[in-house]
Structures are given as structure tokens and as C-alpha cells.
Amino acid sequence: MINGARGEVGVVLAGAERRLCLTLGALAEMETALGVAGPGALAERMKTLSARDLAAVLAALLRGGGETAFAARLAQEPVDPHAAAEAVARAFAASVA
């Protein structure tokens, strides 16, 4: 079940509903993966994500939502890049709602 009060969002990826959540741990993971420090640098870096970067961000958000098994095999799953980008945007939007 999706907990909107916690900032979780449900998205369909690889044919199934997945839960994403922007947690402090996910933010730290993203900063490390993208080689930046701090929210301002992360926001700037998010403007120019490669496919690999997008996958790292999506995996962090999936782990934040408790989808650790799917995040671990994300590279082997048929995830549409547009769906991935939309999922990331929805997760960030939910965190400030």
C-alpha cells in the first residue's frame, strides 16, 4: 500500500506497480552516485542525467520505497526511460507536497 503522507508514490515499471520514496538515505545515495554534495548541487546535476545516472537515481528511490529486490535487478528489467524519468519526477514532487 502506498503511504502518501510519507511521500511515497506508486508507479508502473516493468509491468508492475512499484513504490518510490525520496528518503534521506536515497538522497545520500544519489549524491554519491552522481558525485555531488548537497541538495543544490544535486538539483543542478539532475538537469543533465545520462541513462546510467537516471537508473542510479531511480534505484535509490526504489530502495527508499522498500523495493530493494527490484532496485537490485533494475538493469535487467525492461524499464522505459520516459517512464523512469516520470517516476523520478513524481517522487520528487511528492516529497514537497
From TrEMBL:
InterPro entries (UniProt xref): Phage_TAC_11
Domain of life, per lineage: Bacteria
One Pfam family, short name: Phage_TAC_11
Name of the protein described by the UniProt record: Gene transfer agent family protein
Organism field: Brevundimonas faecalis
